[in-house]
Amino acid sequence: xxxxxxxxxxASLLALSATVASAADMMAELTAAAKKxxxxxxxxxxxxxxxxxxxxxAFKKKYPEIKVNELNPNAxxxxxxxxxxxxxxxxGPQAPDVIDVGLSFGPSAKKDGLIQAYKVSTWNEIPDAVKxxxxxxxxxxxxxxxLGINKDVAKKAPTSFADLxxxxxxxxxxxxGDPRTGNSSMMSVYASGLSVDGNAKGEDAMxxxxxxxxxxxxxxxxxxxxxxxxxxxxxxxxxxxxxxxNLLAMRDKLAGNPPVDVVIPSDAVVxxxxxxxxxxxxxxxxxxxxxxxxxxxxxxxTGWLRGYxxxxxxxxxxxxxxxxxxxxxxxxxxxxxxxxxxxxxDEQGAAKKATADNWAKEMGAN
Length: 366
Prior knowledge:
CATH class of the largest domain: Alpha Beta
CATH superfamily of the largest domain: Periplasmic binding protein-like II
Low-confidence stretches: 1-13
CATH topology of the largest domain: D-Maltodextrin-Binding Protein, domain 2
Largest sheet: 8 strands, mixed
Distance between the termini: 50 Å
Structural class: alpha+beta
Number of domains: 2
Mean pLDDT: 91
CATH architecture of the largest domain: 3-Layer(aba) Sandwich
Helix content: 40-55%
Number of strands: 10
Oligomer: single chain
Number of helices: 14
């Protein structure tokens, strides 16, 4: 029960004061325990992803006693899970304390006993639909899939998935990586399936998406190279899919060299939620919990917003007037996201299975 709920229930001010003091004491104890551990190991957090670089530096400045080890910044969600499995008995800096993975990876990690439960103090402001009721994983931020376009190469920007089949985009289209191990790539393929059939879901949507990308490969429009900022700037992958927050940050970083358009496809708008979790084998469990408390605080959530990510407490913070106006002004217009679809866990799970079963078979990918 939150303090507000207790107040409505008739709790006395003295009792409320005691609760506040108790919460402060618990936070002080957690902070002390985390500082005693003196380390935190994160994984798969590129500094330009949701402005994680600034978020990490802010945490280090707030808690200088805690050394932050950063493993494999460019790893995918599947790589993070494998890192926990491979380091169950490792108490050193190669064992991740925390993970940030696509929503579909949360339930399987819980089922396999790879993560532990912890509910942050702002738990009640995280929507129920994107958190495990027992606290094993919980949504942290979300975005929608968009296209980053090198305007020097693609003179006329595509505005839909259907456009990508045009001959003018030969040897131009890419996704960030293998959809079997990376959530952004998997959901890019899923979104293409929805562009073919807006009523498709789960396995059906994924298989339609695989067929779509198979046709792009057959026509020569799909580039067999991972899409990223460097490859876009060089023209190797002049058009590639990624979450809007990554593309907007890339656009700003390139600063017109080359000029970049960020387009939300008109025929399918898919939103993706990422989740946080603490490894069941975390060498530094208290530092991991303190990291979570920071990420879900107003300061941490605003940090993600600076990187164009919609923090999971976005609605609650908006109602409370906590979202900085200057940051809100930098986001794309709200109407661009009006058609966004949030695939459920079951739908994502079915899509993940279809990817594992059919991607390599249809695409000839190892």
